[in-house]
Amino acid sequence: MAGGVSGGANVNGHVDDPGGVIRLFSGPENATARRRIAMIGTYVPRKCGIATFTGDIVEQLGKFHSDISCDVYAMTNPAKPVEHHGIAGEIGQDDRGAYARTARRINESGVDAVWLQHEYGIFGGDDGEMVLDLVDRLAAPLIVTLHTVLADPSDRQRRIVARLVERASQVMVMARHSRDLLMQLYDVGDARITVIPHGAPDRPFGRQEQFKAQFGLSGRKVMTSFGLLGPGKGLERVIEALPAITGRHPDFLYRIVGATHPNLVIEQGEAYRERLQALAGELGVADHVEWVDRFVETDELLDQLEASDIYVTPYPNLQQSTSGTLSYAVALGKAVISTPYLHATELLSDGVGELVEPHSSEAIARAVTGLLDDPMALEALQRRAYARGRETIWPRFADGVAKLIEKVAADAPHGGKALLATPGLSSFYGMCDDTGMIQHAIGRVPDRRHGYCLDDNARALMLVNMADAMDEDIADRLSATFAAFLNHAWNGETRRFRNFMNYDRSWSEHTGSDDSNGRALWALGHTALHGRTEDLRWWARGLFDEALPAFEDIESPRALAFATLGAACRIEGEPDHEGARALLQRSGEFLNRLLAESRRPDWAWFEAVLGYDNPRLSQALIEAGRILDQGEWAMAGLSSLQWIASMQVSASGQFRPVGSDSFSHAHEALPFDQQPLEAQAAVEAAMSAFRADGTQRWVDHAHTAYRWFLGHNDRAAVLADLTTGECRDGITPRGPNRNCGAESILAFQCAHYGVVALARSCSFESGKDMFPAGDTLENRRLSEKPAANFR
Questions:
Q1: If we measure between CA atoms, which residue out of 196, 194, 193 comes closest to residue 185?
Q2: Which residues are within 8 A (CB) of 620 and not within 5 positions of it... i.e. 6 or more apart?
Q3: Fewer CB within 10 Å, N side or C side of the chain?
Q4: Whether 353 and 489 share a structural domain
Q5: pLDDT for residue 573 is more than 90
Q6: Neighbours of 495 (CB within 10 A)
Q7: What is the DSSP letter of 65?
Q8: Is residue 8 part of a domain?
Q9: How large is the average pLDDT for residues 409-418?
């Protein structure tokens, strides 16, 4: 193989990496590429099988599917440096920070998919566990090729592979047995596993004599083994078989092609090769063994194989998953004799090769002499191998690879759906009963085992306040149900709200979390302003006032933010409400101070860790500053919201919610799992920002966040059904979560009404029609109603 890369661009320099652990290169641009993927693994000219395989993928895609381009990120070992050209970057295998920085660069590059070549030894940490620091941070769909699937992995090895397959949209293996192990050991569904046999060259059949002449081997029967020498190859057994073979066929030559494994050279020098040579001398067959003691590039390797009659792989380890040279030998029409390791068992089935028991020189001798004694049988075996090889030649391999990439790569989301189309409510109704809204669902089926929670019922009450598309009698009944839930959740003894209720209506706690109490106060403030009837608004004002004193000493940032949004509603309906003003004053001072103390040049945020409902912190500070005429707070809220908004938009301009994996990582935003609650918060915080400064960017950001529900996301997954109003519970690395729980349904529904209210506000501010072309008459009708501002 002539390198397997496209061109030899020079290194441009080191970017954002003083230690040189990640080096960025200026690889060639493919302006006609329809798909672009990031390829991660060792890479040519590094001398290892994974590097050759990675190079093969890039080279063969370039030949047969030029509409797919590859940005190669090569793993490097500082102890064995190589010079890469024409690639996107290098990753030092032992530098943990390099993995995170590379993930960020890949995310920012906007590739359609990432393809990782996995072998335990090419990544840093015990069993290569540092690879997890990379895959946990990748946003694009992930393909993982597992070059080794162990039948009996260690606990750490199992944990690493389990995480990889959990993150992967597709797992590629090269043998059916590896697929079966994945299904048995890791519970991976067959639909997520793609089997693509190792590719091989397409050369004419039967050119042995031509290439024997080239290497000075004319007139001899030649058998070859190839690969980096080491005790795991089983070559001792072949040498021990030579006396029996050469006794019958004196012209026989066994060629061992390949250098000693570099790790073995470091530990022992050439002691292993010398032991093999000594063994051949002791058995009197040294003249029948030829040593090609060097690393052979692919093109020469193929020539060496063409000069052979027989290829032998006597591996004692029967768990060997894949051998690239075995695939090459079969495709070139060589008679193959092998121990029954996994790859050989599959590739040589149906009489394509001969399998012999491991650790047996006698079995090898019988197989070789049997073929040499019967030239017709030898040629027949060679022709069967050549026929099998037509299934794995490079064009076929490249077609399989391209199909895999197309299957995984996220299509550009399609428009078509009117942005303001009113979602149905049947899914919302299906999660409700006469107690309240059930928390969780299995798929679309309400899961009664988990009962109810205050958080969801508070949000549900706010949705009914806004949902002017809801039938009036249904809305009145549901308002009463959710209000009754909040009313019953208030614990007069503790002066706090309870949160979790069992399905039998018994409470599972006396006091709920600060966050649930904050959401309850928010819902009460919202209902005091936007409740559907005066009786409902009167009730909400009373319970709001009773619950408000509990927030005098709460310092949970989100709980205060939620309560602040409720207090802002309360003040809009009753500007002189002293308790609500006092809460806004305390919350504004607290959040502004928290932001100032936590801010640093690259992290303009309230906390070192990004959590959930992040934009609510900025939204609360904006509202406190706007209502109390504190310009500093409003500006701080706007700047922090602009920062979090920039953190939640991908390189391709799509909304990418801060993933729940980020919760344990300081000063970092990980892409999964993505939650609907974050998109809703982005929409509604953008509404507050628009009210504060009136700039178009907040309208644009709200639309970007809302489109996340409709398929404009990292997996092109349509999470929300406009017909039923249901919404999936988020996006995992493999795609959408199938469940449709209360929080997700409410997030989608409330985000919709937030976008509608923002469109109305824009229309009122500018006198322009802000509804997209093709919007429905129902939305036109809704636009004529008074806006129910949602904070």
A1: 193
A2: 560, 561, 562, 564, 565, 587, 591, 637
A3: N
A4: no
A5: yes
A6: 12
A7: -
A8: no
A9: 51
Q: Coil, strand, or helix at residue 20?
A: coil
Residue 49: CB atoms within 10 Å: 17
Mean pLDDT value of segment 433-445 = 97
Cα gap 547→495, rounded to integer Å: 7
8 Å CB contact between 683 and 791: no
**Nearest of 759, 674, 653, 682 to residue 717 by alpha carbon:** 674
Per-residue confidence (pLDDT) for residue 32, from 0 to 100: 65
Residues 538 and 595 both lie in one domain: yes
Structure token digits, residue 9: 């661009």
* H/E element, 762: helix 742-766
The mean per-residue pLDDT over the stretch 301-311 comes to 94
Sort residue 649 into left (φ over 0), alpha (ψ -120 to 50) or beta. Answer: beta
547 shares its domain with 666: yes
Q: Which residues contact 219 (CB under 8 A, 6 or more apart)?
A: 212, 251
Q: Which residue has the higher pLDDT, 353 or 772?
A: 353
| CA-based nearest residue to 557, from 525, 594, 523 | 594
Model confidence pLDDT, tens digit, residues 66-108: 999 999 999 999 988 999 999 999 999 999 889 988 998 898 8
Q: Which pTM was predicted?
A: 0.76
Angle of helix 375-389 versus helix 324-331 axis, rounded to 10: 110
Q: State residue 418's pLDDT score.
A: 54
Return contacts of 543-547, CB within 8 angstroms, 24+ apart: 543/486, 543/487, 543/490, 544/570, 545/579, 546/490, 547/490, 547/495, 547/497, 547/517, 547/520, 547/521
Q: For residue 550, what is the domain's CATH number?
A: 1.50.10.10
The tally of domains found in the chain comes to: 3
Residue 62 is part of a domain; what is its CATH number? 3.40.50.2000
Q: Which pair of tokens denotes residue 89?
A: 């970057």
pLDDT of residue 20: 36
> Is residue 415 scored above 60 in pLDDT?
no
Distances (CA, A) of 182 to 105, 152, 535, 559: 30, 12, 60, 44
Distance CA 33, CA 65 (A): 9
The answer to the question of residue 261 being in a domain is yes
The structure tokens listed for 73 are 């990120």
- pLDDT band of 265, cuts 50, 70, 90: confident
Find the DSSP H helices in 187-323.
Answer: 208-214, 235-248, 262-268, 271-282, 298-306
Query: Which domain does 742 fall in, by range?
Result: 426-783
Residue 284: CB atoms within 10 Å:
11
CA dihedral (763, 768, 774, 777) in degrees, to 10, reads 50
Instruction: Write phi, then psi, for 356 (nearest 5 degrees).
Output: -125, 155
Nearest to 245 by CA among 195, 280, 270, 215: 280
Of 150-164, 257-271, 494-508, the least confident: 257-271
Is the Cβ–Cβ distance between 657 and 708 less than 8 Å?
A: yes
pLDDT tens-digit map of 321-349: 678 889 999 999 999 999 998 889 989 99
List Cα–Cα distances, 710 to 136, 414, 433, 658, in angstroms: 24, 9, 28, 18
Q: Please check the confidence at residue 11 and state whether its pLDDT lies above 50.
A: no
Does residue 214 share a domain with residue 180?
no
CA dist 746 and 758 (Å) reads 18
- Output the pLDDT for position 2: 32
Mind listing the pLDDT tens digit for each residue in 631-679? 999 999 999 999 999 999 998 899 999 999 998 899 999 999 999 999 9
Both 457 and 549 in a single domain?
A: yes
What contacts 655, CB < 8 A, 6 or more positions away?
648, 649, 679, 682, 704, 705, 707, 708, 712, 713
